[in-house]
Amino acid sequence: MDTLDITLLGKEYRVGCQPEEREALESAVRFLEERFIDLGAKTQASGEKLAVMTALNIAHEYLQFQRSGGFDMPGMKRRIESMSSRLDDVVAQQEKLF
Q1: What are the φ/ψ torsions at residue 87 (nearest 5 degrees)?
Q2: What beta strand segments (E) does 1-98 contain?
Q3: Mean pLDDT calculated for residue range 27-46
Q4: pTM here?
Q5: In b/e form, how buried is each residue of 57-93, taking b as 16+ CB within 10 angstroms?
Q6: DSSP state of 40
Q7: Average pLDDT over residues 69-73
Q8: SS3 content of the chain, % helix, strand, coil (to 5)
Q9: What Rg value do the Cα atoms of the chain yield, rounded?
C-alpha cells in the first residue's frame, strides 16, 4: 500500500491508498475541498464546523440519490446510443457534401 499526502482545510494528512486508487482518491480530495470552499463562503463557517456541515450535506445528497433509485445506467446508455446514431447520420450527410 502506498501513502498519499493530502491537504484539507489547510491541514495536511497522510493517507494510505492502493496505487490503482490514487487518482480516484485525489479526485475525491479535490471534490471535498471544493465543497468546503463553497459551503464556507455561503455560511462563513470554518474548521470542524465546516467539515461536519459539509459531511452532512454530502450524506444527505447521497441518501436522496439512493432513495430516488440511483443512476439509471441502462437509460443513459440508450440515450447515448441514440445520440451517437444521430451524430453518425449527420456526419454521413456532411460527408456527401464534400
Answers
A1: -60, -40
A2: 2-8, 11-17
A3: 93
A4: 0.65
A5: eeeeeeeeeeeeeeeeeeeeeeeeeeeeeeeeeeeee
A6: H
A7: 70
A8: 70, 15, 15
A9: 21
